[in-house]
Amino acid sequence: MTERVEVRQSVLKENDRIAAELRTGFAGRQLLVLNLISSPGAGKTTILEGTLEALRATRRRTAVLTGDIQTERDAERLRGHGFPALQITTGGTCHLDAAMVQRALAGLPLDDLDVLFIENVGNLVCPASYDLGEDTKIVVLSVAEGDDKPLKYPGIFRRARLMLLHKIDLLPYTRFNREAAIADARRVNPDIEVVETSCLAEPGLGAWIRWLEARIEEKRLAGRPTRG
Amino acid sequence: MTERVEVRQSVLKENDRIAAELRTGFAGRQLLVLNLISSPGAGKTTILEGTLEALRATRRRTAVLTGDIQTERDAERLRGHGFPALQITTGGTCHLDAAMVQRALAGLPLDDLDVLFIENVGNLVCPASYDLGEDTKIVVLSVAEGDDKPLKYPGIFRRARLMLLHKIDLLPYTRFNREAAIADARRVNPDIEVVETSCLAEPGLGAWIRWLEARIEEKRLAGRPTRG
Question: What predicted TM-score, i.e. pTM, was given to this entire model?
Answer without folding.
Answer: 0.92
